[in-house]
Design brief:
Helices cover 42% and strands 21% of the residues. The chain has 120 residues and is α/β, with parallel strands linked by helices. It has one domain: 3-Layer(aba) Sandwich (Rossmann fold).
């Protein structure tokens, strides 16, 4: 199956996504921010990256840009619950290189369907 990198500062989200996709036979590695995720990408090859937008140290928009610049073939799914004012930044992720986006909270079925489509 696929090798997936999950980048999210929320431990619950990282754990949930790891459980969901490991149950489907994928290998899942997690990182708590974009800087850590990019270091992991320099050491290993991934088929898909799921990244949050709002994180400390290196946020998702910058992470998406760097991933696509260095690893253009990697598929990227951007996820976000919006900022504290309720702004939705997900529409801006596709022009930066994300292949798809999904609002938090999401259902397990929605994210599985989206990831399966990206990996097909």
């Amino acid at each position: 199956m696929a090798k997936i990198l999950v980048i999210d500062d929320e431990e619950q989200i990282r754990g949930l996504l790891k459980r969901i996709f490991q149950a489907q036979g994928h290998m899942v590695i997690t990182a708590d921010n974009g800087a850590v995720g990019l270091k992991m990408m320099a050491q290993e090859t991934f088929d898909l990256v799921i990244t949050d937008i709002f994180m400390p140290e290196k946020e998702g928009m910058e992470t998406i840009i760097e991933i696509k610049r260095v690893f253009p073939a990697v598929k990227i799914l951007a996820v976000s619950g919006g900022d504290s004012q309720g702004c939705d930044y997900l529409p801006m992720t596709k022009p930066l290189g994300a292949d798809a986006s999904l609002n938090k909270p999401f259902s397990n079925e929605d994210i599985v369907r989206l990831v399966n489509g990206l990996l097909a």
